[in-house]
Amino acid sequence: LTTKLLKEAKMKFSRTVLVTGGSGFIGSHLVCSLVDSHPDWRIINLDKLDYCCSPRSLEAVEDRENYTFVRGDVCNPRLVNHIFHSERIDAVFHLAAQTHVESSFRCPSSFQRVNVEGTRVLLEAARGARHRPRRFVYVSTDEVYGPSADQVFDESSPLRPSNPYSATKAAAEFLVTSYRDAYQLPVIITRSNNVYGPRQYTEKVIPRFLSLLQTNKKCTIQGTLPISRHFLFVDDAVQALLLLLEKGAAGEIYNVGAACEVPIRRLAQELVQMVKEVPESEVSNWLEFVSDRPLVDLRYPIRCEKLQQLGWTAQVSWAEGIRRTGEVKWYQDNPDFWADTGEQRGPVGDEL
Ligand SMILES: NC(=O)c1ccc[n+]([C@@H]2O[C@H](COP(=O)([O-])OP(=O)(O)OC[C@H]3O[C@@H](n4cnc5c(N)ncnc54)[C@H](O)[C@@H]3O)[C@@H](O)[C@H]2O)c1
Fold first, then answer.
1. Which ligand 1 atom lies nearest to the CA of residue 73?
2. Domain count, the chain
3. Which of 35, 76, 253, 267 is exposed most, by the fewest CB atoms within 10 A?
4. 3-state helix, strand, coil in the chain (%, to 5)
5. 292 found inside a domain
6. Which residues, other chains included, contact 60 with Cβ-Cβ below 8 Å and sequence gap of 6+?
7. Which superkingdom heads the taxonomic lineage of this protein's source (predicted)?
8. Is residue 274 part of a domain?
9. Could you please report the per-residue DSSP string of 79-121?
10. How close are the terminal C-alpha atoms of the chain, in Å?
């Protein structure tokens, strides 16, 4: 009877979408958007709930009929194969990863395991499934291009990753394209600029600066180089993923870029003024310069005409996005947001 009921429940949905890493920062925004905007789709989130997640990120959807959470490791072939055999997975968004660049210098093997081996396990399960997904979207990063002083990267630019995190993301990309070429798996790869917004774990630069300032500590800026990043608001990143699911061409790679490039020092100054409301003459009192990690890339400018031709443009301006990233009070209003997570790992510098 239970099997019959389950079958009937599944039949109500026109599509099943598997999101890995759906409890993380971008993943939780993507899952909420999918669950809300597609009540006729079933959304399965496979996530191991690492230190960077809060169960509260998904509380808005956890009781929805079209949402299912599976706690587990993407590197576990038995579990992942089971999901592909017991469900008719129509589309995959693969976001599960180790994402903290600074930690990747300290423990590259866990990045290798999750980012490369986890991707291989998922690809192999998708390839072997009786019902093959119609799309397999691998969410990669602009960091695979390596740093640039003045070159603007497009999707055909060579990959020159320069840290263990980006090296594992690039390695996973090559696995993805090998499954495209060898098995005609309909993959799409996205390479996105830095994404920011509410609920991002405090190891990343914007929430890190915000939470330091909101607890009356100085923003710690790494090194003296004129480092800058392009920042994309999380809603725009999610819209790009949703559009690519519908309109992206199988086998293609798409840059997802932000127009807004912000030098890290200016970012810190802006956030000091927003949070501390001090006059310009006092801003530097809230900045502290610390030593570099082994290597920090200068900048990653990318072109994203290919995605724009499908109808995507970033909608949220920097001013609006940074305001909504906590009004800037989100981190202040949610001081215990991460309290339920396991291990807490705090970096020393500004994590990009
Ligand atoms: N945040 C950015 O600026 C950015 C930019 C470009 C690309 N990306 C990519 O987007 C994806 C999501 O990034 P994010 O910022 O949301 O990261 P995040 O660190 O917030 O989330 C990662 C998620 O993966 C899960 N996870 C980790 N290991 C797992 C495993 N073995 N099995 C199952 N789940 C596991 C974590 O629990 C977490 O929910 C990543 O693949 C990242 O490389 C992020």
1. 32
2. 1
3. 76
4. 40, 15, 40
5. no
6. 32
7. Eukaryota
8. no
9. HHHHHHHHS---EEEE------HHHHHH-HHHHIIIIIIHHHH
10. 51
Catalytic entry in 50, 90, 102, 143: 143
Is 277 a member of any domain? no
Check if 143 is active-site.
Answer: yes
Cα separation, 305 vs 312, whole angstroms = 9
pLDDT of residue 223: 77
Q: Which residue range is the domain that position 74 belongs to?
A: 15-197+232-259+299-315
Q: Is 40 a catalytic residue?
A: no
Q: With a 6 A CB cut-off, is 202 part of the ligand 1 pocket?
A: no
164 lines ligand 1 (CB under 6 A): no
Please tell me the distance between residue 127's alpha carbon and the centre of ligand 1 in angstroms: 23
Closest-CA residue to 198 (of 328, 100, 99, 94): 328
Q: Is 350 a catalytic residue?
A: no
For residue 330, being part of any structural domain is answered with no
> pLDDT of 231-288, one tens digit each?
999 999 999 999 999 999 999 999 999 888 999 999 999 999 989 999 999 999 999 9
pTM beyond 0.85, yes or no? yes
Which position among 67, 138, 145, 165 bears the catalytic label?
Answer: 165
Distance (angstroms) between ligand 1 centre and the Cα of 336 equals 21
Domain harbouring 93, CATH code: 3.40.50.720
Q: Indicate whether residue 203 lines ligand 1 (CB < 6 A).
A: no
Measured from the CB, is residue 73 less than 6 Å from ligand 1? yes
Q: Are 338 and 202 in contact (CB under 8 A)?
A: yes
Helix (H, G, I), strand (E, B) or coil at 233: strand
Mean of pLDDT values over 305-333: 85
